[in-house]
Amino acid sequence: MNWSTDDIPDLTGKRAVITGVTGGLGFHTALELARHGAELVVTARDASKADDVVARLRKEVPDVSVDVVPLDLVSLADAKRAASEVTAAYDRVDILINNAGIMAAPSNLTVDGFELQIGTNHLGHFAWTATLWPLLKASDARVVTVSSLMHAQARGFDLRSLDPAGSPRRYRRWVSYSESKLANLSFALELNRRVKEAGLGVVSVGAHPGLSSTNLQKTGVSMGGGVNTLAGIAMHQATRIVGQSAAMGAWPLIMAATDPSLTGGEYIGPSSLGQTRGRPQLVGMTHWGRDEDLADNLWDASEAATGAGFRV
């Protein structure tokens, strides 16, 4: 498969909602969709960074239609509030790309008391998407959930991390990150199964950017300062050398969002060097990613943890 951005169809009249647009992947995804005519609704935690992104988008695509919705996935209430604002303001959403996230953060909790990475990467997006669901369903939207190569490092998912009491395990930042990205992939596939069973027109696809040079490596790992800052800078620099650009890393997300041949349940990632770089294509996943019992249990536990009923 030799997919490139030349294969993106005309998106004039389509509305795309993208979380985490102030990061490299989110920005380049938004930019390519805008270049092909999409109207954008983007989310960000930091208003000044959001203003910078909008200015950059308008410099590249002067006639772009772009609105900003504040969203902090660390708070379930804020995720629901932001999604409610979107459903109130817009008559449809054609594409939803759940891209925002943090990586390898030191031990910390969300506003709601969940481990930070699980709470932000998975539960925040779960509550956000559940609240958007009536609009997504009515729009026959395509939902893209961004996972990671690191999902392959997860040996299952500790459902106790979705309990208010938390998991009794000793915290390991990379274990938590891997499980959060497994949860993202599991969610994408379980949503696909549920919409297919319900006979709906929604399409759910998973994607990952391979090893891409973004600020995610530096900011997540650097949280906590000291030696973490040095480790974050070193990881960021190493990724710039051996990985691919953020623009290329966005290609799997863009293909997942726009390729009409994808009908749901696919996983898109880079094609070369163990899925670390290259043009996007259909890629494999671990058996944990395909585990339907795990996905069903994770869905139920996520509903309970977020208080967001998600009945497809």
Précis, in short:
With 312 residues, this protein is of the alpha/beta class. It has helices at residues 24-35, 47-60, 76-89, 116-139, 173-198, 216-222, 227-242, 246-249, 251-258, 287-290, 292-306; strands spanning 15-18, 39-44, 66-70, 95-98, 142-146, 203-207, 212-213, 244-245, 267-272, 277-282. It has a single domain (8-304), classed as Rossmann fold (3-Layer(aba) Sandwich).
Task: Tell me about this structure.
By secondary structure, the chain is of the alpha/beta class. The protein has one domain (8-304): Rossmann fold. The protein has helices spanning 24-35, 47-60, 76-89, 116-139, 173-198, 216-222, 227-242, 246-249, 251-258, 287-290, 292-306; strands at 15-18, 39-44, 66-70, 95-98, 142-146, 203-207, 212-213, 244-245, 267-272, 277-282. The strands form 2 sheets. An 8-stranded mixed sheet has the order 3-2-1-4-5-6-9-10, with helices on both faces. It has a two-stranded parallel ribbon with strand order 7-8. Helix 4 (116-139) packs parallel to helix 5 (173-198), helix 4 (116-139) crosses helix 11 (292-306) and helix 6 packs antiparallel against helix 7 (227-242). The longest helix has 26 residues, at 173-198. The two termini are 33 Å apart.
